Amino acid sequence: MLFLCLCSALVVTAAQLVQDDLTLTRRLGQTVSFSCARTDQCYDEYVYWYQKKETETFRVILDINRNNGDIRKSYSSHPQKNDFSAVNKRKGWELQIRKVKVDHSASYYCSCWIRGSHRNWFLYHCVLLWGGGWYLIFGSGTKLIVTDEQVVKPVVSLYPAASSSLLCVASRMVPPRVRFSWKRQKDNGPAEDVPSAGDEQLELREPGRAASILLLGQPEDGLYKYSCSVQHEGGRVEARTRAELPAPAASCPPSRRAAEPAAVQQEAELVPVDPVQSRYQVKLLCLLYTALIVKSLVYCCGLSLLRSLRDQGPSAADYSRPH
């Protein structure tokens, strides 16, 4: 069981296709297309597209040849497969809907087959266990929203939640889906991604808002300017603050000064947090850790179930597996 969980986690994180668009908002009758990057790592020339609605499972739509745009959909049982086509854009061949309908509201995922390599012994044997050397990789998905509402960029607020953490909140956005990223800059040096080894990032989501918490570790001496960037369909919004994190002294425990407000870009604002709100954040963190543990257990059990079902007979995806 543990081996299967480790295999599933490694296979999922080993490679991934890239879908830059989190959401795409369209009105009835408009045209939309979904991009999929990093298809050069795919073993064969076909990229497979799936539709996922809120209350349904993944359904294959069609396959698109990433070199010439040729479409295969004869094997697909999707009732709307004729609504979809391929279009050649700057990033390559994309999945297209020429006239959007309400029934098209869903998330769309690209996928392709890749083969395990002997260079990574553990990954290679995991892949042999799961599918004879082949496994599917997916993009993160793009959600199509069919509505007359206007897209509204988020308002980003940056909070010095404590002496060793920063809180970035995105609110008032339409649609509500966002993606957070953190960077830091020392003195006048170049900006860099916050290293995951030293600093931990947590995310919280609720209707109408989303938050990312950066728990600071033990950075080197000097002043750091931390920036929180929020990716949204309406554009990217960035907020910045400056936090001084002195090096720990040899004769006393390490200490940190509270974050000092600085300039914030665009709609972002920097406000202090009162003690009541700080306690609220601690409770949310505890709840988040519990949810992550439960999610991991459910994920491993689900993959083990898929493995057992796969042993009982070929799945629909096997018909498109390269030979």
From TrEMBL:
Residues 1-15 form the signal peptide. Its main location: membrane. InterPro entries: Ig-like_dom, Ig-like_dom_sf, Ig-like_fold, Ig_sub, Ig_V-set, TRG_var/const_region. One of its GO terms (cellular component) is membrane. It comes from Channa striata. This is Ig-like domain-containing protein. It is found in: Membrane. Pfam families: V-set. The lineage of its organism: Eukaryota, Metazoa, Chordata, Craniata, Vertebrata. Keywords: Immunoglobulin domain, Membrane, Receptor, Signal, Transmembrane, Transmembrane helix. Residues 29-110, 165-246 form the Ig-like domain.
